[in-house]
Structure formats: structure tokens, C-alpha cells
């Protein structure tokens, strides 16, 4: 080994270890959580000092990441048998389970404490409830017991705009609850689209996702039904006077696009047992669209509030 290679090896090792700890936080999930939390903070009446606003956003991100780390610790057995998760740091043996649990619990406690000290204890309590809900209600109780795991457990991911709003106002009101409802009804078609093409993984791990317990045909129908429910709910901010015509137009167009993708999922060509004959291409496109949909709807909320009103 050359001197240069020998010198680089410890650094490379250190960076890979850091990336494994970051991976425990589920950064892609955290990015959406943070976006919706920031939107809640920005549309709330009043303003926080910049330093406290940054602290609140950091706490939302750390709290979501902490819940993800604890989820990976608890699910390490099923992650090890699922193709899309077997290379995660714990099942791959790169991080010890006990270390991951301590990491997650420590970050969770720190995020709640800092939120309370930096903003207020209503926001801190809401953040704490969201972490506990994700860990105990979704991960430990629902995920391995019922195909409704995503429907009920999806509430955990819907808290961020409520937390952001509470960080500014010290209370919870109707508007952030509507934003909560948008994420809540978005979650089932988002995750069920994923589960349609990852159903073999869930079946192998014994996770009762809807395609495993009720079949792909029923799952496609539920994707469409929840997407149809989401469309009017997404328009409530404008219908109730919290947002203007710009938001209504954006939400309506994005919602129509989501319905289009859900219809494609529902009408996907299937064999006699309901399995896709197209490699679940419509479900994959619906899943990708759902990610863009949520981000753009919440950005429209902010533009409507800060730029156009």
C-alpha cells in the first residue's frame, strides 16, 4: 500500500462510520419532515428570532431522525431479510444495536428538551408525542400486527407542521390541524404505492402490509380511494380562508395529477391473482409523484402566505 493510500484509509473509514450514523436518521424521510415543519413555522402568525427558528427546525429534524434510529433498532430483525433494507447499518453489522438505541433515545431527549428551552413547552410536548407515537404506536404496536399500520401510524409523520406552528405561537389551532390532515391522508397512497412493488419483501419479513394481507387488487383500490379523499382535504386551506386562490390552483392541479397516477395504478394490467403485468410501473411512478406532490403543496402554502397575501 502506498503512503498516500495508507494515510487516506483512516479518513475513509471515519467518513464511512459517520455516514452509517447519519443513515440511522433516515435522512430522506427527515428532509420531508423538516420541509413540512418549516412550512408550519413560516405560516404561523408571528415570528421567532432567527436563532430560535433555526433551533426549532433543528429539533424537528433531530426528533424525526431519533425516531428513525429507534425504528431501525427495533426492526433490525425484519430489515435483515428485506432486500431494500438488509444493507442498513445495523443488519449489516456496521453499528451495534445497543449503540443505535442509545443514539436514538439520546437525540430524542435532546430534541424535546432543546425545543422546550428555545421556544415553548407546547411545541416540545407535541414533538415528544410525535416521537413516542412513531416508536410505540406505529413501530412496536401496529407495524407487525395490522394492515392498517400505515393509516393509523401515518399520524406520526403528520405532526411537523403542528410542531412548527406551536413553536411560534405556543398553541395549536385549526390551520395546522388541516396541514396535519393533508399529510395524514397523503400517507396511505404514498406508502401503499411503494408496497405494491415491495410486497415480496414485506411478505418475507412477515409484515402485514395491505398487498400481503388483502392482495394487490384491493391495495390499488385503496390507493385510489385515499387519493380521492386527499383532493378535497388539500383544498380546505382555501375553502376555509387560510389560503388564497394561488394555493387552491396549485393544490387542485397537483391533486388532479395525483388522482391521475392513482387511476393508472388502479387500472394497471393484472393477472388472475391481481399481480401487475407491467412490473408495477404505475405504482412506481405514483410513489415518485407523491413525494413531489407533498413538497410542492407545502411550498405553495408558504408562497401563498408570505408572498401573495
Automatic annotation (TrEMBL):
Q: What's the protein's topology in the membrane?
A: Multi-pass membrane protein
Q: What Enzyme Commission number(s) apply to this enzyme? A: 2.5.1.141
Q: Which GO terms describe its molecular function?
A: protoheme IX farnesyltransferase activity
UniProt keywords, alphabetically: Cell membrane, Heme biosynthesis, Membrane, Transferase, Transmembrane, Transmembrane helix
- The keyword Glycoprotein is annotated on this UniProt entry: no
Matching entries from InterPro entries are given as: Protohaem_IX_farnesylTrfase, UbiA_prenyltransferase, UbiA_prenylTrfase_CS, UbiA_sf
- In terms of domain of life, where is this protein from? Bacteria
Query: Where is this protein chiefly located?
Result: membrane
What pathway or pathways are given for this protein in its record?
A: Porphyrin-containing compound metabolism; heme O biosynthesis; heme O from protoheme: step 1/1
Q: Where in the cell is it found?
A: Cell membrane
Q: Which protein family is it in?
A: Belongs to the UbiA prenyltransferase family. Protoheme IX farnesyltransferase subfamily.
Q: What does this protein do?
A: Converts heme B (protoheme IX) to heme O by substitution of the vinyl group on carbon 2 of heme B porphyrin ring with a hydroxyethyl farnesyl side group.
- Something else known: Carbon 2 of the heme B porphyrin ring is defined according to the Fischer nomenclature.
Q: What's the protein called, per UniProt? A: Protoheme IX farnesyltransferase
Origin organism of this chain?
Answer: Siccirubricoccus soli
Q: Give the taxonomic lineage as stored in the record.
A: Bacteria, Pseudomonadati, Pseudomonadota, Alphaproteobacteria, Acetobacterales
Q: Which gene encodes it?
A: ctaB
Amino acid at each position: 500500500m502506498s503512503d498516500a493510500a495508507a494515510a487516506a484509509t483512516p479518513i475513509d473509514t471515519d467518513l464511512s462510520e459517520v455516514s452509517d450514523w447519519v443513515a440511522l436518521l433516515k435522512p430522506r424521510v427527515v428532509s420531508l419532515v423538516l420541509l413540512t415543519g418549516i412550512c408550519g413555522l413560516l405560516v404561523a402568525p408571528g415570528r421567532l428570532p432567527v436563532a430560535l427558528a433555526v433551533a426549532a427546525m433543528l429539533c424537528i429534524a433531530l426528533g424525526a431522525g431519533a425516531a428513525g434510529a429507534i425504528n431501525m433498532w427495533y426492526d433490525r430483525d425484519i430489515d435483515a431479510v428485506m432486500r431494500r433494507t438488509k444493507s442498513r447499518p445495523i443488519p449489516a453489522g456496521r453499528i451495534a444495536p445497543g449503540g443505535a438505541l442509545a443514539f436514538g433515545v439520546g437525540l430524542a431527549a435532546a430534541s424535546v428538551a432543546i425545543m422546550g428551552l428555545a421556544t415553548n413547552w407546547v411545541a416540545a410536548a407535541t414533538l415528544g408525542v410525535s416521537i413516542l407515537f412513531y416508536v410505540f404506536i406505529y413501530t412496536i404496536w401496529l407495524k407487525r400486527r395490522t394492515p392498517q399500520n400505515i393509516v393509523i401510524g401515518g399520524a406520526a409523520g403528520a405532526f411537523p407542521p403542528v410542531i412548527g406552528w406551536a413553536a411560534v405561537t405556543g398553541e395549536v389551532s385549526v390551520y395546522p390541524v388541516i396541514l396535519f390532515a393533508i399529510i395524514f391522508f397523503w400517507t396511505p397512497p404514498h406508502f401503499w404505492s411503494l408496497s405494491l412493488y415491495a410486497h415480496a419483501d414485506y411478505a418475507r419479513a412477515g409484515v402485514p402490509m395491505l398487498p400481503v394481507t388483502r392482495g394487490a387488487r384491493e391495495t390499488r383500490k385503496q390507493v385510489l380511494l385515499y387519493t380521492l379523499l386527499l383532493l378535497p382535504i388539500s383544498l380546505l386551506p382555501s375553502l376555509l380562508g387560510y389560503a388564497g386562490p394561488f394555493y387552491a390552483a396549485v393544490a387542485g392541479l397537483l391533486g388532479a395529477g395525483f388522482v391521475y397516477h392513482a387511476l393508472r395504478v388502479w387500472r394497471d394490467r393484472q393477472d388472475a391473482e391481481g399481480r401487475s403485468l407491467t412490473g408495477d410501473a404505475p405504482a412506481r411512478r405514483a410513489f415518485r409523484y407523491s413525494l413531489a406532490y407533498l413538497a410542492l403543496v407545502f411550498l405553495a402554502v408558504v408562497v401563498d402566505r408570505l408572498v401573495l397575501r
